[in-house]
Amino acid sequence: MLVNSEQIIQALIETLQMVAFSLLFSAVLGVPLGIALVVTRKGHLLENAPVFNVLNSVINVFRSVPFIILLVAIIPLTRLIVGTSIGTAAAVVPLVFYAGPYIARLVENSLLEVDPGVIEAAESMGATPWQIVFKFILPEAMSSLILAFTIATVGLIGASAMAGAIGGGGLGDLAITYGYQRFDTQTMFITVGILIVMVQGLQSLGNISAKKIRRR
């Protein structure tokens, strides 16, 4: 049986849901981690070697595990959190564990690009460490952060398609079930085409937004 348009639309909606919720929860996890990596590193605002080393090591561990292995490895945790290991909701859990540390690194890199002179100027005005972070460093790094989140979202789109390998739903599940297992080449090309359009559109939007912020 060939796939129909309703199935493609449903798969697209599931992919968008997976990416949206995963990005939200990953940002909640990754942004504070990224900030903590910056402020606790040697010579920075709240230098703390033990905290930095622990965070750095934990993030490196999660980033070193391929996503397809992570999908399987945390199935018990996924079942504990959402009550099942298949479906769109279940796919969000490993996606968050995959993207959270990745976003933390991207945020760290973006914040470290800020000119040290900005921090020195803020300190000379008597700003507290957290005022420096939220009123000086983050606004100064906003353009870079937009590009960082664009990259992270593109990565989540690819990972959400991979989640279809274990019944995660979305376009990846559709491509595997019909395009691969039933040799439906048309469905395979359609799903790949939709993913390409999503990535291209998102990257263009991110580039334009970052350029506008940079000009201000």
TrEMBL record:
<protein>
    <submittedName>
        <fullName>Methionine ABC transporter permease</fullName>
    </submittedName>
</protein>
<feature type="domain" description="ABC transmembrane type-1">
    <location>
        <begin position="12"/>
        <end position="207"/>
    </location>
</feature>
<feature type="transmembrane region" description="Helical">
    <location>
        <begin position="187"/>
        <end position="206"/>
    </location>
</feature>
<keyword id="KW-0472">Membrane</keyword>
<feature type="transmembrane region" description="Helical">
    <location>
        <begin position="145"/>
        <end position="167"/>
    </location>
</feature>
<dbReference type="InterPro" id="IPR035906">
    <property type="entry name" value="MetI-like_sf"/>
</dbReference>
<dbReference type="InterPro" id="IPR000515">
    <property type="entry name" value="MetI-like"/>
</dbReference>
<feature type="transmembrane region" description="Helical">
    <location>
        <begin position="20"/>
        <end position="39"/>
    </location>
</feature>
<feature type="transmembrane region" description="Helical">
    <location>
        <begin position="51"/>
        <end position="75"/>
    </location>
</feature>
<keyword id="KW-1003">Cell membrane</keyword>
<keyword id="KW-0812">Transmembrane</keyword>
<dbReference type="InterPro" id="IPR051322">
    <property type="entry name" value="AA_ABC_Transporter_Permease"/>
</dbReference>
<comment type="similarity">
    <text>Belongs to the binding-protein-dependent transport system permease family.</text>
</comment>
<feature type="transmembrane region" description="Helical">
    <location>
        <begin position="81"/>
        <end position="100"/>
    </location>
</feature>
<keyword id="KW-1133">Transmembrane helix</keyword>
<keyword id="KW-0813">Transport</keyword>
<dbReference type="Pfam" id="PF00528">
    <property type="entry name" value="BPD_transp_1"/>
</dbReference>
